[in-house]
Amino acid sequence: MKAHVYVTLKRSVLDAQGQTVAGALRRMDFKGIADVRQGKYFQLTLDGSLAADPARAQVEVERIAREVLTNPVIEEFTLRVEP
Amino acid sequence: MKAHVYVTLKRSVLDAQGQTVAGALRRMDFKGIADVRQGKYFQLTLDGSLAADPARAQVEVERIAREVLTNPVIEEFTLRVEP
Fold first, then answer.
1. Of A24, A30, A60, the CB nearest to B32
2. Taking CB atoms and an 8 Å limit, are B48 and A32 in contact across chains?
3. Which end of chain A lies in a sparser environment, N or C, as judged by fewer CB atoms within 10 Å?
4. pTM of the predicted structure, to 2 decimals
């Protein structure tokens, strides 16, 4: 079973990487892209005990995302645990 | 309208960042995580013309992901265009 965590900078934080990508797309003549935000993506493979209990997996992955993968001062996260 | 692109290292490529995170989780006594892979996440905000035509948006975002956001030698991508 897999879980996916997406970490992005908060809206209030300047995203220099995203702006650089957006600028590159403009210069390369890609149309229709108003904004780009860049973040981190983590794919966690859950083993035995956690994979067998989706409710506990959700709680545990959320704890990992909050305590380890995200810097709460400047970042926020969303997550998805595969059913 | 938003599109989401997830870029990860190919399975055959050593993911040092992911292994470092997995090791840290083990040392911090988080149980049940067999493996971690780390990648990049791009959130694209589509404007007018592209937002009005989901089929074209899908094609265009796939082109951006393939030609700009991904290094095809070592990376692969998945994408999702919001309906």
1. A60
2. yes
3. C
4. 0.91
